[in-house]
Design goal:
Helix content: 55-70%
Strand content: 5-15%
Largest sheet: 3 strands, mixed
Number of strands: 3
Radius of gyration: 16 Å
Bound molecules: zinc ion
Strand order of the largest sheet: 1-3-2
Length: about 180
């Protein structure tokens, strides 16, 4: 997958300083993590699509302010986005995917919101916290830019390689929303 790897490397460099570039290169994704993600990707996509359908079935459209923010970010189809509030965020049924999902920190109580394609989930407890939606909109932008499958693949590889706090896709969301992290 040379094209994706090239995109991944440039995403790395774009948020790290020059002095960090060498260490970022040293921390390239391992063949094992790439193999593991490739093996899970079909199941991960089924989970993405099922969760997105759930948001579409009972979610709300963006408010005028949120839609304006989404358009300013560069999202092509803000009208497709639905926001759904739940006490617990969706989790995969497949045991293998669920195990990886938990290993990567998804489903923990620290998680305030999550994006599945054009579906944004926010924990009901945080329903008044609009910063979560702004953060999640960056992930909608990323998935729109790359395509949902390529985004999902890259997100999982980055999470395995760098961990949530250092991964480039989260760094972009952090930087674009002035330091909000979810
Ligand atoms: Zn995020």
């Amino acid at each position: 997958m040379p094209i994706l790897l090239a995109a991944f490397a440039s995403a790395c460099v774009s948020f790290k300083s020059d002095s960090d570039a060498a260490s970022a290169t040293a921390l390239a994704p391992s063949p094992e993590s790439i193999r593991q993600v490739e093996a899970l990707l079909d199941k991960a996509m089924q989970f993405q699509e099922a969760s997105e359908r759930l948001a579409f079935s009972k979610g709300r459209a963006l408010t005028k302010d949120e839609a304006g923010y989404a358009a300013a970010l560069g999202i092509e189809h803000p009208e497709k986005i639905r926001v759904r509030y739940q006490w617990r965020l969706p989790k995969p049924h497949d045991p293998e995917l669920l195990a990886t999902f938990k290993d990567l920190g998804f489903g923990s109580w620290l998680e305030g919101g999550r994006t599945h394609g054009y579906g944004i989930f926010v924990k009901s407890y945080f329903s008044s916290k609009s910063a979560i939606i702004r953060h999640e909109l960056v992930h909608v932008l990323q998935a729109e830019r790359m395509g949902l499958r390529a985004f999902t693949r890259q997100y999982l590889i980055e999470a395995m390689t760098y961990g949530y706090f250092d991964m480039p896709l989260e760094a972009e969301a952090f930087n674009k929303t002035e330091g909000e992290r979810y």
